[in-house]
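Standup notes, protein team

Yesterday: finished cleaning the Cohnella herbarum set.
Today: ComF family protein structure.
Blockers: none.

Input for ComF family protein:
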Amino acid sequence: MRLHISTWFAPSGLPCPICGRNAQQTDSGAVAIPIQHGEPRRILSALCFSCRRSIPWIIHPVCRICGRAERCEDCIRRQHRSYSISRCAVRYDNQMRDWLALYKYRGNEGVESVLAAMLAFAYERLCLSTSASFDAITSVPLAPERLLDRGYNQAERLAQRLAEWYGLNYHPMLLRLRHTEKQSLKTRRSRVTDMRGNFAAVSSDLFSGKILLVDDVYTTGSTLDECARILKKASQTNDSTEIYGLLWARS
């Protein structure tokens, strides 16, 4: 994919949506932004130079399955998976963790458009890797109590933004039956068993085709794989249904 090199200046007087500083009061310069679509690029142009420069894009994924920038032992060990491949926009470093927390836990909805614009990179990379035309896009759901507490599902909102920009059909296809603790704190075996029985399809007769499944962070792939398994099981023609993962960050 060709990288656009742009010298961007935020509108005069407007603060950076991430750090709050006036973008024109920080150092400016050329930053490689690997996104083709105009709207995500426009949104990212509101970031100050420091924030734009700090984005750890996964330009050259090493793992062809999950898109990780390093060798992935999880994908090597997993003998069967229900999704085809996945792609992630950025590495989940400390700064990206802080950015997600601004939106996910502190309710800073102004960050939503920035994260969605970053996710657009993963979508364009996925299209480049597969040459696929996707029939629908959906998202990993939250448990009812978590949704009630937070008020929104961040993965759903990111997926809806992407659907709007690229002309995709968004459909809620999954239900989350219970909340689970962070997967990064568990053993691999516990991650897999903990996901079983955690999701259900909204219908027993979902349509088939190529489906994009969106989530915010890929940690072990267990959530993505279980959701893909449920979607394929509920599709009209299991054999012809393909699930592709699309995630904002890869830990």
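Follow-up from PR in the comments: The mean pLDDT is 86.
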